[in-house]
Amino acid sequence: MSSSFDKFQKRRLISSYFSVVLSIFLVLFLLGVLGLFIINSKKLADDFKEKIAMTVFFKKEANDSIMKAFGAELKKATYARSNVYVTKEAAAKQHTDIIGEDFMTFLGENPLQNSYDIHLKADYVEKDSIAKIEANLRKNVMISDIVYDKQLVNLVNDNIKKVSLWILIISGFLTFIAVLLINSSLRLSIHSNRFIIKTMQMVGATKSFIRKPFVMRSIKLGMLGAILAILALIGVLIYVETNFPDLGILENKILIVLVLLAVLGIGILITWISTYFATQKFLNLRTDDLY
After folding, report:
1. Domain ranges for the chain
2. Biggest alpha carbon distance in the chain?
3. Which has fewest Cβ within 10 Å: 121, 147, 266, 291?
């Protein structure tokens, strides 16, 4: 009979530990995913900004030397990330491929202009910055027109600000939920040992002596849950890098390591604090209040 009861108690204890570790793992995994998204959100936003091209068209009078000189200026320009020289012949071929027929056969000439497609650095893809760059470029008398999607630039910047605000709100909310879930799991685990805690107290054990094994056990469970979360996050990183290499998600390795260490630190910190206050509660209760 005693053996069956011991087995039951052991199974219940293992089940309790499993539920605590699972709760810690799931919460820390979600927090880790959010942290990785936050550190890569700026890079993703910058990559999108840098894909917006500013096209500079030149007059027919602009010869090869003028075009080469302009290209040399762009290489020195602090605002230019990259540039591509598109001749009017290459532009005509692109138009022909798009519309499916050679428009020059009935026009008799090529009406297109030589141009440069300039991709700006992300910091300069702002309404005011682009306006200044455009005004400076228009000082060149050989430039006939400058074209870029102004509405898209404004839309991108406005949406990035909104998304950043929502990320901040969601981060705070998930952190609060994480603390509550882990705290609840640990409190339930300690609640099952409330009679043991009170018995040890009644035979003269100090509060710190009673609290220590519970805190150490919870820290171990927190570390186990955090390590599982870190392994899962590494798996997610490898999967994303393998299937979406253009995102370059592993480029900033220092920040990734900091996020993984933060996951471990949060797992240890929350379990330590939650267990400390949970045991303190039962240590301060009267014996009659335990039932």
Report:
1. 2-47+156-290, 53-148
2. 105
3. 291
**Cα 18 from Cα 280, distance rounded (Å):** 23
Residue with tokens 């014996």: 287
Helices 253-284 and 194-202: crossing angle, nearest 10°? 60
Q: Which residue has the tokens 């910190």?
A: 269
CA-nearest of 183, 135, 220, 168 to 38 is 168
pLDDT per residue as tens digits for the range 227-262 = 999 999 999 999 888 887 877 777 778 888 998 999
Report which of 50, 46, 40 is spatially closest to residue 82, judged by C-alpha positions. 50
129-163 pLDDT, tens digit per residue, is: 898 999 999 998 999 999 988 888 888 877 777 77
Whether residue 167 contacts residue 38, with contact meaning beta carbons closer than 8 Å, is answered with yes
Question: Which helix (H) or strand (E) segment is 105 a member of?
Answer: helix 104-107
Cβ(129)–Cβ(79) under 8 Å? yes
Six token digits for residue 142:
């050989």
Distance separating alpha carbons of residues 256 and 241, to the nearest angstrom: 13
The CATH class for the domain spanning 53-148 reads alpha beta
Q: Residue 187 is encoded by which pair of tokens? A: 């409190």
Distance CA 261, CA 136 (A): 47
Pick left, alpha or beta for residue 100 (phi over 0 → left; psi -120 to 50 → alpha; otherwise beta): left
Please choose, from the candidates 227, 225, 252, the residue with its C-alpha nearest in 3D space to the C-alpha of residue 37.
252
Amino acid identity of residue 229, one-letter, is A
Q: Is the dihedral of CA 129, 131, 137, 140 positive or negative?
A: negative
pTM exceeding the 0.85 threshold for the entire prediction: no
The C-alpha atoms of residue 161 and residue 164 are separated, in whole angstroms, by: 5
